[in-house]
Write a structure and sequence with these properties.
- The protein is mainly alpha-helical and 136 residues long.
- The chain has seven helices and three strands, in the order H-H-E-H-H-E-E-H-H-H.
- Helix 5 crosses helix 6.
- The protein is globular.
- 11% of the residues are buried.
- The model has no long low-confidence stretch (mean pLDDT 82).
Amino acid sequence: MADIFDVIADGTRREILSILLARSSSGGSGTSVSQIVHELGVSQPTVSKHLKVLREAELVTVREEGQHRYYSLHHEPLEQVDDWLMPFLVGDSTAGILSELDAALPEPAAQAADFVGRAAASAKHAVTSALRKFGS
């Protein structure tokens, strides 16, 4: 399996992941290849090639219905990226404190804290990105 960082380094694959994320948050049960082709404006063979790489990296799942294939985002492998990025987002001293706290917590509490921390970092990133887009 390819290194996840190599997989997401490609801009087209990141765009596909973004499309799948947007469609999953709107309650869809998968996105067809033709929908992705339409949104990206690239050829079907190009999209299929990138979807194959994403599928092999387990970043997407596929559901087959007759001749059609519907793709959905699989979030778990992206946690590797999140884990690698977290020290850069929270700083070295905060990362050390969080690591110590994580080791001291019982497993269910550690998982809950991890979930809340990821949600907070994600929200911070979304707000920061939105403010940058609007020039504030």
